[in-house]
Amino acid sequence: MSSLSPNQITQLSMVLSILLGIAITWAVYHGSEHAELPGEATIPERGEVDDATPDTAGRTLS
User: Fold this and answer.
1) Cα 30 to Cα 23: distance, rounded to the nearest angstrom
2) Residue 17 has pLDDT above 70, yes or no
């Protein structure tokens, strides 16, 4: 039998879900100031050959 009352279990679940939401929000936005925003990408000069090996540093899924 549980040592917690149903009211305590409900309150504990609410607190843990709020903390989980805060943790997920932090994980999503942590380091986002280093993201490349639209309009910040360099536009190549007209007639310039496209780069065959783009810089993929920091853009890996591994």
Assistant:
1) 10
2) yes
* φ, ψ of residue 9 in degrees (nearest 5): -65, -40
Taking alpha carbons only, the member of 10, 62, 58 closest to residue 34 is 58
CA 2 to chain centre: 37
User: Can you tell me whether residue 48 is helix, strand or coil?
Assistant: coil
d(CA 1, CA 53): 63
Give the whole-angstrom CA distance, residue 44 versus residue 46: 6
Give me 52's structure tokens. 């065959």
Answering whether pTM is above 0.70, one says no
Q: Specify the amino acid at residue 29.
A: Y
Tokens found for residue 32: 């986002």
CA distance 2 to 13: 15
